[in-house]
Design a protein that fits this description.
202 residues; seven-stranded parallel β-sheet; 15% strand; globular; disordered N terminus; LOG; AMP nucleosidase activity; EC 3.2.2.n1; cytokinin biosynthesis; Cytokinin riboside 5'-monophosphate phosphoribohydrolase
């Protein structure tokens, strides 16, 4: 049942595109995609049909949800677009990331590799610069993201990152807790009053 009180419309998922990933991660991605559809949230993702990426899109689509994929031309062969959903083909990675950002009200990070790390570091950098206040939730099965969180904490302890960045995301271990964490965050922001947009990305 869609959550009528939520202001969230679209959620971007960053995740791995490898079919060699742990099967439990791929199954969780499918369940998370389903949960978005059931909550009335559109899934925005990298457009591929492989790995966790493809599983999330298939889960949302199978459950009747809306899905938007964004994929660069040069990755179409490697990441095999999921043609059953709306897919926009762009020229390069920069266009892909900006479109995914602009079309999304919140972000969910699933297990992934170097590409996922690039995306989330950029997103957190923009957050640190007060360029956005969009919710960010990590799916952290078996502590997958703990080393990343430790690295961010290390940069905070060394005085290189402001302590406030530690509050820029939430992490949940179970797939079924991802969407409730997003909706809970959204409800808290709504009750407190949404901050004014501080800047524009260029």
């Amino acid at each position: 049942m869609p959550n009528e009180s939520s202001r969230l419309g679209s959620v971007c998922v960053y995740c791995g595109s490898s079919n060699d990933a742990d099967p439990s991660y791929i199954a969780d991605a499918h369940r998370i995609g389903e949960s978005f559809a059931k909550a009335g949230l559109r899934l925005v993702y990298g457009g591929g049909g492989v790995g966790l990426m493809g599983a999330a899109a298939r889960g949302a689509h199978a459950a009747g949800g809306k899905v938007l994929g964004v994929i660069p031309t040069f990755l179409r062969g490697r990441e095999q677009p999921f043609d059953d959903v709306e897919t926009v083909v762009v020229d390069n990675m920069h266009e892909r990331k900006m479109m995914m950002y602009e079309r999304s009200d919140a972000f969910v990070v699933l297990p992934g590799g170097i590409g996922t790390l690039e995306e989330i570091v950029e997103l957190l950098s923009w957050r640190r610069l007060d360029l956005h206040q969009k919710p960010i939730v990590f799916h952290n099965p078996r502590g997958f993201w703990d080393p990343f969180f430790a690295l961010i904490r290390h940069t905070i302890d060394e005085g290189l990152t402001p302590p406030s960045l530690a509050n820029a995301w939430r992490a949940v271990e179970k797939a079924e807790d991802v969407t409730p964490a997003l909706l809970s965050w959204d409800a808290q922001v709504a009750s407190a009053g949404e901050p004014a947009e501080l800047s524009q990305l260029t």
